[in-house]
Amino acid sequence: MQHQAKKRYGQNFLRDKNLLKKIVNESNIKDKDVIEVGPGQGALTSFLADQAKSVVCFEIDKSLKPILNPIELSYPNLKIIYEDFMDQDLTAFGDDLHVVANVPYYITTPIIFKLLETKQIKTASLMIQKEVCDRLVSKPGSKTYNSLSVVLQYFTNVYKMLDVKRHMFYPKPNVDSAVVRIEKRNTPFLSQEKEKIFLDIVKSAFKQKRKTLTNNWFEAYQIPKEDIHEFLISLQLDPNIRAEKITLEKYIEIAKVWPYDL
Ligand code: SAM
Predict the structure, then answer these.
(1) Are residue 179 and residue 205 in the same domain, yes or no?
(2) How many whole angstroms from 99 Cα to the centroid of ligand 1?
(3) pLDDT tens for residues 188-209?
(4) pLDDT in tens, 155-175
(5) Mutate to test the pocket of ligand 1, among 8, 9, 13, 176 (most ligand atoms within 8 A of CB)
(6) Residue 84 lies in a domain
């Protein structure tokens, strides 16, 4: 069956069976409830259904139905819903959910936020742009370290599973990809109240990358710069430090003792 790939839906399909099997095997989904975003022509779907307890797929493109129908019929544990994933309330599908997807790149960040916000989702293995993956897993001092890296690493254990070259897809995209593995932490590092502070101060710290932390916090909260300097020194930090030099652990420590209004 011929299907014309649709650019507007981010359709870049996979077919290398070894790669698909590797992604599924390393996603640890045996006997688990799995959600797949965008099954496309079902390349990943049957490997998922072979291992998982159940697989629920969301596919926005109804014209893929004739290709996906036979796969759905051959797996009693597989259900394909032809709707936009971003509109879904996932609570109906279980409380221990695992997402596996070759993500449509135009909605990579919204998908990651939806996964973070949905309590029922415990892990995600996502094919995303290599550049985005590098940002998500990046560490202090690296050019790609930003507020999303800090926030994601706060809520999850995140690492790169594998690199995937662009020629593995058809049609071939303009960038290389990588599979990122995201595992939610069971216990939060901070209380709810301190967590709110943490999220706010991390976001404001990175607001303008060329500025020092002091300048960014001064602009965000109107705290006198001398006070911020003293505060940083009390935490054994250089008062002229930039946000990208500070570790997750240090941001957590800062949130715990943050003395100012937000
Ligand atoms: N899983 C297939 C594969 O690996 O070959 C297809 C991956 S392709 C990169 C992304 C898929 O997501 C496409 O089938 C596309 O139609 C679908 N898609 C795009 N936006 C979507 C959305 N908002 N909700 C659900 N599916 C979507």
Answers:
(1) no
(2) 13
(3) 999 999 999 999 999 999 999 8
(4) 999 999 999 999 999 999 999
(5) 9
(6) yes
